[in-house]
Amino acid sequence: MSRHPKNTNLTLHAESTYQGLAVQVDKGPFISEYLCRLHQTMGLALTQYPRVFAFRFDLRLPADTQLPDYVVTNAVIDRFIESFKAKIKHNRSQARQLNKHAHDSRVRYVWARELGQYGKPHYHLAIMLNRDAFTALGKFEAGRDNMFNRLVEAWASALGLPVETVSGLVEIPANSFYYLNSGEREGQAAFFYRASYLCKSATKVFGDGAHGFGCSRS
Question: What's the pTM?
Answer without folding.
Answer: 0.92
